[in-house]
Amino acid sequence: MKNAEVKLTVKNRIEDLLRVNSIFESFATQHDIGGKLRYHLLVSIEEILTNIIKYGFDEQGVHPIHITFRYDSGTIEMEFEDRGREFNPLEVSEPDLDTPIEDRQLGGLGIHLVKNMVDVARYRREGDRNILLLRKAKQATAPSA
Amino acid sequence: MEFMTSQHDGSGIVLTFRGRLDTVASQELKHPIRAELDRQPTNLTCNFQDVTYIGSAVLRLIFEAARELQRRNGIFRVTHCPTEIRRVFSLTGMDHIIEGGEGPKFTHESKDGTLRIFLHGRMDALRVGEIRASVRELISAHRGPIRFDIAAVPYAASAFVHLCIDASKSAKASTSNFGLEKVVPDTAHIFRLAGLQSLILSSV
User: Fold this and answer.
1) Looking at the whole model, is its pTM more than 0.90?
2) CB–CB of A36 and B155 under 8 A?
3) B35 and B61 in contact (C-beta within 8 Å)?
4) Do B172 and A102 touch (CB under 8 A)?
5) What is the pLDDT confidence band of residue A1, given thresholds at 50, 70 and 90?
């Protein structure tokens, strides 16, 4: 049976990434999401989650991160919700890709990858919650003439 | 059988699995595994050497087989488990059924002045965190060209890109160079997005 929506909650621990990957792999298989698209969505999940885990919480301790995978009419949505400090990852400065490698500053690369791999990335703050929505069409739409 | 072959040796059975063991594979594996268990083996070995992925449905089949062997006081073993698959077992707390130590996360050779590091498995943030210190130690001690052979890396995210930037900086510091060899197309795409296509020396 196909699950149109899968919800899970993980902790702010990098090792929980494996569980998220495993659940997404199962979700992707159900909806015949493979190849490059599956790869890009896995990278997007990893980059968003590691970002939240590394930078999202001021205080130490265990914090839940709620994740939803949704499939509807050929569109995949992934939503990440946490109660960390207010932070819009989409406003992180773009890495300077023209800088020679030896002078490259780290930072911003993961979010840059995400922005280039999904169709829509939207952040909102609701009360004390950060909510990030990523959306990607299963089939790439033809560019308009 | 696409996903499994079996060998019988007296009262023991060896099941050799291969490929991507996802939900589809679980449907195909359910009855053949049941048939093997119905032979009442005293020991059952599952060889995972050629398994690239294992999903929850197949894990469940394996755990049920393990429980059944335990109930009958039989011996259940998992052997030749790739690191990635071992990690999935670890997450479920069942890694104790895996025989043998964890395989190397990478190997390396130094030949004709070039340090070549052969990386294996998914290069996600977790894996890169595990290997970062030892890879850095290797490359910082080397004077000369550095290559990452990533033919056996099916996935890479920004943590791995950062490791490559580190390696490149280290090579440049010793007036040498760094490059990636045998890059799969999807990973090559990640490096292009990162503006680092110049690091790719060869593809598969």
Assistant:
1) no
2) no
3) no
4) yes
5) low
